[in-house]
Amino acid sequence: MPSKKTYATLAAVAVAAGTIAVAGSGVAGAGTATAGKPGPERQLAFDRTATYPVFQNRPAGEDPATPTVAEISAVSADGRTLIYTDALARRIGFLDIGDPDRPRGLGTLPLTELGDAEDEPTSVAVVGGYVLVVVNTSASYTDPSGRLDVIRLTDRQRVASLDLGGQPDSIAISADQRYAAIAIENERDEEATPAGGEEGDLPQAPAGFVQLVDLAGKSPAGWRTRKVALTGPGGTALPALVSAGLAEPTDPEPEYVSINRRNQLAVTLQENNGIVLVDLPTGRIEKVFGAGTATVRGIDTENDGVLDPSGSFEDLPREPDAVAWIDDRYLATANEGDWRGGTRGWSVFDSRTGRVAWDAGNGFEQLALGYGLANEDRADNKGTEPEGVAVAEYDGVRYAFVGSERSNFVAVYDLSRPTSPVFRQILPATNGPEGLLPIPGRNLLAVSSEEDDASVLVRASVTLYRLGRDTPAFPSIVSAPERRGVAPIGWGALGALSAVPGKSHLLYSVTDAAYSPTRILSIDPTSAPAVVTGSLTVQAADGTPVGYDAEGIFARPQGGFWLAVEGATGAGNQLVRLDAAGVTRQVVPVPAEVAAGLAKQGFEGVTAGTDQRGREVVWAALQREVAGDPTGVVRLGRYDVAAGTWSWFGYRLGTTDTPGDWIGLSEITVVGDRLAVIERDKLNGPAAKLKRIYTVELPRAAAGSGPLRVLPKTLAYDVLPDLRATNGWTQEKLEGLTVAGDGQVYAITDNDAVQDATGETVFLRLGSEKKVFGRR
């Protein structure tokens, strides 16, 4: 069970997260509590049970590298068959989730069998034994079209098809299954320029609308559509949209739909920053209101490689994307933004007044900082980009799920009081979480993701989570606020670990080139999750902040640090000695003859010890072979500090037969009379094969001249099972390893600053030094 320290830290993180109301921590095991005061009982929490890459569900014979995604998903009435849209491959897919620990592919249904090869599914829903597939068949932006295909789930045969009269987006089904509502967006062309406007501006005809389908008491063959126009005759603006102050009421562009138990439909007009309420039985527009603007402070707004939450923006329109009713009065919106705005959070609206009842402020952004998921590359463009929101009740508690498209997480909030959401936890997702599907009847949540790029092994997937009382595997590391009321310490790209001299259980890590300036982070691993407790900025000799590509760190018992700095070229590889204040005091370049044989993979780890005379000796590992060395043999460098000389030993790497893969080293540390190294492949997800810790003897003297002496290696620990045990996307970059002063062994993965990676950091407690290395 997590310690009380964990509760207090995570609650403090949430308190620092702007306007989020905090009554509990963000980790399982916490009871109802105020910040720093954990309750006596463990609250329920969601834990990931499985991650299913949908390329594994492709048709026989299709190239595994062919892009295939999972965007919007729905589930059968019994909660055991999941259906997802795959717009890239122009099909829908089916998964058996009867066992949520082991989802199984059930194949796909290509839309080419139902229409045209370019038909694109945009959304999906289930009514009874039928799958309702919303299909975009548009020939162009100016000639939009679409249809609703009704597929019998048992045999996947189409039993009906309805013309929708325009380009559709989302679909919602009423709780009583009497109605379906479909947003007909007729989206704008971002490269078109309307008269008197700029490229991508509104209005662009034809205008969008809402299509209703009456379902009750009829077979699909008898279903009929009813149009709810959002413009007047001839495309004129409706007075209700004008009075609501929408951006361009002649081009509403409805985006997302949700239906409450009173059969009242909420429709977001994202580009118009508005919301429309429609009575489904009559099709009458009841209310239109603007989503308003927000001023948000305490966020990162510059794409400059610095995690700096001191920025702000003024009076930006919320531009909500997804919408979900909380109850029959309040509704939640994910304020992704589009062309004019996006407030990087989510809001609760009172449908009776059209006013904001609660707003996340900077809280959603600061959660990303505290959990190491801030996508700094998007800091100047919608940040975390909250796109999806879903609401459902589990075990008597109503929850909101809010998805971050760019930081790859879903935040979970307790909505027991709709106007005072309480942050509970973050769920890690694969890249681009698009579809949020609560399955409360089975205590499950499914999240489907839309980013797929086989070239970097980023693959779209469906991830399943179960609500229970077990402590979730994520997060394994978080950060504490620097002080109460201030943003959490932003962190990420932690590719190295070191013990803290004189502190039996504390650790250091260091950021790599993903961020600048370089920072040394203090970590307390005694609580679960581990906590980033402090940050030290690395400086050049003149005291100015400096950015190194630090791939290794060693805290010296004599004071200060050694960094292993990887260069963009061979000559850029260096050992850098810092004093205790983080100021550069010495730079040791790699010898010229070694630099000449290096490509972009150079130093990847550093450690130090003493020789037989008690003098300091630094060890550094190169990741890949030096040109001219024997194939498959990489170098371990020994630097004699007093003499200022290098000597080199060889380490034989494993082999791989996977195209595009390579094997290399990514860490080194002294363990008694041996050197421990991490040897890993370049693969992730289900393809990952090699994530191991080996040891070699610790040479007590410099290497002699002549050929490299290859040190025999011994397998100490296979880390791959630990990485797979998280039930997530197996991380590629196992890059940090150390033994703390108390003899506990820790490892960590580099999250690549959420670039071409899920962004998840896995901090591992591997056990005692005796368990891992067979010694006390």
From TrEMBL:
Alphabetic keyword roster: Signal
One matching Pfam family: choice_anch_I
Coiled coil: none
Phytase-like domain span: 490-752
Signal peptide coordinates: 1-23
Presence of keyword Nucleotide-binding: no
Start and end residues of each Choice-of-anchor I domain: 342-424
Family matches, as PANTHER family: MESENCHYME-SPECIFIC CELL SURFACE GLYCOPROTEIN (PTHR46928:SF1)
Protein name: Alkaline phosphatase
Record lineage: Bacteria, Bacillati, Actinomycetota, Actinomycetes, Micromonosporales
